């Protein structure tokens, strides 16, 4: 045993037990190359590690069951330790220690802790399955995460709020949009978390916590379909049954590298789905690839009502400049590449009403409808909403009927102008104004991102248009979605165009990226001499 | 980057993708000190690692997202790699590689893979909670894992068999034994897996898989309350609501270091609980400590019917010799220590009927009752049972009523002789004939262990006695339970005696074991020079 190592290990365990952040930070080698990983991802750099520690309540108390030490030369040692949390379970830690002038310090650590029965940030209820689908069908074997706004026979709707769940009664039948999936052979694996009343696009929930974003460790998952999206991104489900009022499918799809479809307004029944703002609410889905998404859409949409849409594409400078610089660059680069490779023919530039005006009109009508749907409940249950959603409902409560009526007229006119400007073309735009913000971002920053993103996503809401978000763009390693917005009832055709563009994007990538099965294809290869 | 390391890493990933067991074994340094750990525990030695690989279907296909390499001297390197499974999620691997004459080889590895929504080997359904209890009460905050034999309002009983679940209808009310816990403030976190129809003590299920045993990596969890016990041992639940016909609570308690109580026959309502053999079936609980167990028992038993029992203890040589040698030694040592420390006064030696005769009589009556309960269903659903349970029902189907009637008379007489031999004393015996067998043990070995263990556990079944299994004994690091068997309706008093003995066992341990909070208190400290 190298001198001093065991006592350093013991001191570190004692600092963990006390959650002594200062002492803990001192045990890690300072600098950008120190690593700490667990089931939620890998943190790179001592600052990221210290930030993570500051944001958690501490480590469960535990005893060490076994310790395996490998001395490597005189100045390094690997310690593998098994621990037994006092609250049950077992943990495992692998640490690379190095002897520094200040004593033994940790260079890298991988930590496995005992997992809960289910991750409450993602799921409210889960089963194996929770509801079995019919045998056979086009969706046989597909596991569905149902957003907690849909009636599932035998279960109450919780809408992301425990007090609401408590006041709700179990549904006697499943929503028709869910029944369509079950008939096609899909099964329900669980009921997944949502931002409260779906009235947010951040993907955080003060009651159940923030789901992980497996593609951006430390990043928000996007909402309001946060739980279903994380479940699909993690491979815990294959399909999310979700809603999109003004981005609640497209934003988490963009943040997590998923496919998402917001359907044409009214194309899929909203019966048995808790409303937010009925003029804009739509049902849709998220999946890891276009095939499952298209199969779900085909099983759910009235195909007789579906219309073709020609391959005429448009972009609008305003929708590009509304996004942050990295998103602008990624979007422009993607359109350029698709044009050069022939996947997009001459893209037309169009003008739209000022986005700020459109968004203001949209959000006022949305708020008036949200208050009509939930105002009585919100008034009767003070203190039960998280601060963000509470402030949104407070704003909504102030809109009087006259004001809302005026905005409704504005909205109808704006919609006519949108129809005219698009003229049957497919609008290409970034799915969100940024990639996933950090979970630790300030409220002001989240609010600014919300405004910028909603000014993009509200276009489909205003027009009642279908919109697809496809993955394949990225900014500094974080995924970003490309959105296609098409004429009403062109949902399936839009998906087919999107699948073509996705192939074009994949083909345009460097040959060593995304093509290997087991080779080294990733973003980062970092080598250091320890 | 050390020469040859990256290509060794790539070759290893390729071997994983192909699940090439021969190649994979070659990548690990041969010998007893090589380590591989994941969420299920730490495997020690290259043989254990190869055995683990042989028993799993292979690794999910994945790409590498990032690679962090630390060269340590010339002959060692640590590689931390993030991967992206094609089926979603994210994985993390930390490996210590060493340069050998044969090339780069892995000395230690810790692997984190994407987890499913719920572990189907433990749970059928889980929620946050699944059923909320009343506010306040003696069990406030206690999360209950309900064995899948109990009615839970709104859910069908599955009994560990998917075909049975499919033919069952949702319960309109919860079983009274569950209602008692909910009234006391406990909530249901989920419905947990059982051996099929509870007709086994192994803890394996061909449909949902074998739950982990967090105290014995690679060991069986014990059954039939396998899922609830694993949930409690893992800290995913605090209390298991379970059944014990002939050991189904005491055996998993023993294998996993838990507390378990089988109640006096008839002391807790079996309404709303799927029967196996009603003459022996009892309701009971498992917990990590005696406090929660006693609170659950006090909330569920009719305290007016409970009787005191004096501190008169007995052992029977036969019940010791029925166990394997390690268990014999641990049991004798524990009784010796408890006598020397004054926790046990002079223990009397008593004689019982030959255990083999008692077991034969018991198992015949049990089988006849099991066939009466489930024979029609089993006949109507050929091919739906796993081989072990199928063969047990096949045996049961051959017992005619005359034979069963004869054994019933024998059983009543045996019970009278048991009552006389025990004479109001508390019998001390090992909770099982062995510690947890390996998951890879042969069917013949499992069957031999079953017979030996049931010859111990059937005593309480025959007498209708309550029995407590308390943890604190161990054989080669694996937990073993000490059982106390007392007069009918002495359940609570028996628990109090057991708590006293547990204190005695803990006090008798070396002062550096079990007392630290963060210090090194475990079984193993192994140091090597890499």
Automatic annotation (TrEMBL), chains A, B:
It holds the Pfam family Amidase. Residues 133-495 form the Amidase domain. InterPro entries: Amidase_CS (IPR020556), Amidase_dom (IPR023631), AS_sf (IPR036928), AtzH-like (IPR024507), NTF2-like_dom_sf (IPR032710). PROSITE patterns: AMIDASES. This is DUF3225 domain-containing protein. The lineage of its organism: Bacteria, Bacillati, Actinomycetota, Actinomycetes, Micrococcales.
């Amino acid at each position: 045993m190298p001198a001093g190592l065991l006592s350093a290990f013991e001191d570190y365990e004692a600092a963990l037990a006390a959650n002594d952040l200062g002492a803990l930070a001192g045990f890690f080698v300072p600098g950008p190359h120190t690593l700490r990983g667990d089931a939620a991802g890998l943190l790179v750099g001592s600052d990221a590690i210290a930030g993570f520690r500051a944001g958690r309540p501490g480590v469960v108390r535990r005893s060490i069951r076994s310790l395996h030490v490998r001395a490597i030369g005189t100045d390094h040692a690997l310690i593998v330790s098994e621990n037994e949390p006092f609250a049950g379970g077992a943990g495992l830690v692998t640490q690379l220690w190095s002897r520094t002038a200040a004593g033994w310090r940790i260079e890298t650590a991988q930590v496995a802790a005992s997992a809960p029965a289910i991750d409450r940030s993602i799921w409210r209820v889960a089963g194996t399955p929770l509801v079995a689908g019919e045998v056979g069908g086009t969706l046989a074997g597909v596991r569905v995460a149902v957003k907690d706004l849909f009636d599932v026979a035998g279960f109450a709707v919780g809408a992301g709020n425990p007090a609401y769940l408590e006041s709700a009664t179990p549904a006697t039948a499943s929503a028709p949009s869910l029944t369509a999936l079950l008939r096609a052979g899909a099964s329900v694996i669980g009921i997944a978390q949502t931002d409260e009343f779906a009235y947010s696009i951040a993907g955080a929930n003060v009651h159940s916590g923030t789901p992980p974003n497996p593609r951006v460790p430390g990043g928000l998952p996007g909402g309001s379909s946060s739980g279903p999206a994380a479940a699909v991104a993690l491979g815990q489900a294959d399909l999310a049954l979700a809603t999109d009022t003004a981005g609640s499918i497209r934003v988490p799809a963009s943040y997590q590298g998923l496919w998402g479809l917001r359907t044409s307004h009214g194309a899929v029944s909203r019966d048995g789905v808790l409303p937010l703002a009925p003029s804009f609410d739509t049902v849709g889905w998220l999946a890891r690839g276009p095939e499952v998404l298209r199969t779900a859409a085909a099983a759910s949409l009235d195909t007789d009502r579906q219309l073709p849409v020609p391959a005429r594409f448009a972009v609008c400078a305003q929708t590009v400049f509304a996004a942050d610089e990295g998103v602008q660059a990624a979007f422009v680069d993607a359109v350029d590449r698709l044009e050069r490779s022939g996947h997009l023919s001459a893209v037309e530039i169009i003008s739209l009403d000022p986005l700020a005006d459109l968004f203001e009109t949209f959000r006022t009508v949305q708020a008036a409808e949200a208050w009509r749907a939930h105002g009585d409940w919100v008034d009767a249950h003070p203190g039960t909403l998280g601060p963000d959603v509470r402030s949104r409902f407070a704003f909504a409560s102030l809109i009087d009927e006259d004001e809302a009526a005026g905005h409704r007229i504005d909205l109808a006119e704006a919609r006519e102008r949108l129809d005219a400007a698009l003229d049957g073309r497919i609008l290409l735009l970034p799915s969100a104004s940024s990639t996933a913000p950090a979970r630790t971002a300030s409220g002001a920053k989240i609010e600014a991102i919300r405004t910028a993103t909603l000014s993009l996503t509200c276009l489909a809401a205003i027009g009642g248009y279908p919109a697809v978000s496809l993955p394949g763009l990225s900014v500094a390693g974080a995924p970003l979605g490309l959105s296609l917005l098409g004429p009403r009832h062109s949902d399936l055709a839009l998906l087919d165009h999107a699948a073509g563009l996705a192939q074009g994007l994949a083909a345009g990538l460097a040959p060593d990226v995304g093509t290997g099965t087991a080779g080294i294809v990733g973003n980062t290869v970092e080598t250091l001499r320890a």
